[in-house]
Amino acid sequence: MKFLEDNIERVLLSKEEIADKISVMAQEMGAYYQGREVVLVCILKGSVTFFSDLARELSFPVTYDFMCVSSYGNGAVSGGSVRINKDLSVDITDKHVVIVEDILDTGNTLFALFEQLKSRRPASLKLCCLLDKPERRQKPVEADFVGFCISDEFVVGYGLDYGEQYRQLPYVGVLKRSVYEK
Ligand code: PRP
User: What is the pTM of this model?
Assistant: First the structure.
């Protein structure tokens, strides 16, 4: 994938490191859910790769669902808001739900999404994130299952994009400054 790799400063998390971490996260989740059925929600598009690898490591029954949301950002209406571009296809009332995200950054998207989903009265609602950038947080959101806490660098790959590119890289890499400061 040389056409993408030329723009990568360095590999932050290798394919192997990610796979090992996902096994550990899947075990933690297995211990928590103890065989109960869970609705696993993939937040499009960045989470697709993580979602698909995580789901295949889980030792309890899950159903899949998908949402596509965009945050109105910081200056939004009271408490922040989220635009639902594609909603869930199932009713989550009384279901155990896990939101699967690639990255938790400012928390604006997830904070608003959680407010929306809580109003649907799931039996439980948890957040599972591969990457967490705690120093960027603007809203009080914590993931229940976290892969890696990372510093504030521009990361792409393993689902994460810059201008919709780089999602197909099998690892998480730091993008060269020259790419986004052009
Ligand atoms: C990313 C990520 C979260 C959100 C987190 O999605 O998947 O949904 O940003 O950022 P926040 O904590 O600052 O709200 P993005 O909007 O980049 O869309 P994508 O998944 O389609 O790439």
Answer: 0.94
Residue whose CB lies within 8 A of the most ligand 1 atoms, among 71, 142, 149, for a mutation test: 71
Ligand 1 close to Cβ of residue 103 (< 6 A):
yes
Residue with tokens 């990372």: 150
Mean pLDDT score, 172-177: 97
35-59 pLDDT per residue, tens: 999 999 999 999 999 999 999 999 9
Q: Amino acid identity of 108?
A: N
Query: 109 CA distance to ligand 1 centroid (A)?
Result: 7
Do residues 29 and 58 make contact, with C-beta atoms less than 8 angstroms apart? yes
132 as an active site residue: the answer is: no
- pLDDT at residue number 174: 98
